[in-house]
Every structure is written in C-alpha cells, then in structure tokens.
C-alpha cells in the first residue's frame, strides 16, 4: 500500500444490482426514496449507524451534495468531521459553501474552477482550497492530504463516475458496502463504479481484484461486505 497518501475506504449504500441511486434524475435518491419503500425502509437505519463509524475525513462531490439539498440548508451545527468536496462546475452555491464551512472541522474544496464561490469565503479559518488549472491531479491531491495536512485515512462517498476515476488510478484501498435488499435496474441509473466501459484486452488491467475481509448479515435482509482492493 502506498504510504505517501492516506488509506482510503469506499463506503456506500447500494442495491443488490449495484445501483447507488433509484433513478437517473436528480429527484431520485436513495436517501429520500428508500424510506418510502416497504421491505427496504425497515433496515435502512443500520447504514446510517455504520456511517457514524467511518473516518473523520469524508470525500464527496459537489454534485452529490447539491442533489441532497446543501444549497438550501442554512441551519447547521459543527461536527468533528472534515469534509473534502470535489466540485468543478460548480454545483455548490455560496450557501452550500457556507454550509460546509460551518459544518466541517476543516472544509477542503478541490476544484478547477477559478470562479468557484469558495474563493469568496477565503477568510474562513477552516477552509482549504486546492485549485488545479486544467484537470484535477488526484494523485497529487491525495499526496498533499498526507504530507501537508497529515490526513492518514479518509472515507470516499462520491458518485459512480468519480469512484471509477479513483479506482482506476489505484487510489481506493478498501471497500465497505452496505447492500439493501432490493433490485432497482435502469440502464442510466448510477452504479457503484460507472465511468468509461472497457473494450480491449489491454484494458483488463484496469479491473481491480478484491480480497475478501468480512460479510455480516444485518437485520431486515441487509448485508455489510468488506474487501481490500488489490492495486499492485
């Protein structure tokens, strides 16, 4: 394992067929929809309980956070968690930025957008912006987390596209997945790992083998799976 960067764990909730959303529009989201589905809602709280046990550094995307409504949240309390948000478009508004400044122990914003509203909040003493001119160099980002900010481990809870980028760059070390007892389907519905499909024999080198760690049967037909990722 590369010790020049933090140890990373992909922690996600998904259906048995690997879907991390309930549809292909912003209105569809497991956090809002699973509580409405009989046979799924009953055990959902177990995922949130496990989430409370994850690392105190959490990586996500502005797109995902905007989808769950952070740009409209004004009442927020401080937590011991430091949030790392990848956001180029940007998806976060000034309200969303202020939300994370208030909520985070330290708020790390990683972006290629020089006009991101986070730059207007640079007087906040717990805001760190990592700016890249053209494309985010995730190897460099993760290296800086370790060497500059002394982050030894963090949890990844991003979308399928970014999960794919990080996985194929060898930047995910562990997988911790809670499987909900349902099948969602949908060709365009996001999965645990999205991104470009493989098409050649040479690209098979991008497939990451896993080493089994544990499987725990939870209540109400939920399952918690853990694997180590073989990156070398």
Structure write-up:
Helix content is 20%, strand content 24%. It is α/β, with parallel strands linked by helices. The mean pLDDT is 96. The protein has one domain (7-229): Dihydrofolate Reductase, subunit A (3-Layer(aba) Sandwich), CATH 3.40.430.10. It is built from six helices and nine strands, in the order βααβαβαββαβαβββ. The protein has a nine-stranded mixed sheet with strand order 5-4-3-2-6-1-7-9-8.
Number of strands: 9
The unreliable regions are none
Secondary-structure content class: alpha/beta
Strand arrangement within the widest β-sheet reads 5-4-3-2-6-1-7-9-8
Oligomer: single chain
Q: What composes the largest sheet? A: 9 strands, mixed
Number of H/I helices: 6
- Give the SSE string: EHHEHEHEEHEHEEE
Structure keywords:
single chain; 232 residues; Dihydrofolate Reductase, subunit A; nine-stranded mixed beta sheet; globular
SSE diagram, text form:
Layout: E1 7-15, H1 30-33, H2 45-51, E2 57-61, H3 62-67, E3 82-86, H4 94-103, E4 107-111, E5 127-131, H5 138-147, E6 153-156, H6 160-168, E7 174-180, E8 210-217, E9 223-229
Parallel strand pairs: 1-6, 1-7, 2-3, 2-6, 3-4, 4-5
Antiparallel strand pairs: 7-9, 8-9
Short description:
By secondary structure, the chain is of the alpha/beta class. It has helices spanning 30-33, 45-51, 62-67, 94-103, 138-147, 160-168; strands at residues 7-15, 57-61, 82-86, 107-111, 127-131, 153-156, 174-180, 210-217, 223-229.
